[in-house]
Specification:
The chain has 102 residues and is mainly alpha-helical. It has three helices and three strands, in the order βββααα.
């Protein structure tokens, strides 16, 4: 998988603990998930789902970067252009995640 190891965020993988706080693989605190209404999550299904989504963010970005890299290479080599819009949108999302988007 092609990934850019220079990231502004705490390196993954991240894990969700019993109280839905998110921790890096070295045990460092990353974030605490909220349910959008009542503060920190305990037994709230939406809050736990938020925590799981946050925890996979580094892996999602790495996979998206890899997909863009390989699709871009395939489009250059073959002239195939069906994925241009996807690549454009994916690059915009990656830029937002990195804080480069306006």
């Amino acid at each position: 998988m092609h990934t850019d190891t220079k990231t502004p965020w705490t390196p993954g993988p991240w894990n969700v603990s019993y109280d839905s706080s998110i921790h890096a693989s070295d045990g460092g605190y990353v974030a605490e998930a909220y349910d959008g209404r009542n503060g920190p999550v305990n037994d709230d299904a939406a809050g736990k789902a938020n925590a799981r989504l946050i925890a996979v963010a580094p892996d999602l970005i790495a996979t998206l970067e890899s997909a863009v890299y390989h699709l871009d290479a395939a489009m250059r080599e073959t002239g195939w252009s069906d994925a241009e819009e996807f690549v454009k949108d994916a690059r915009a999302l990656i830029a937002r995640a990195r804080g480069d988007a306006q």
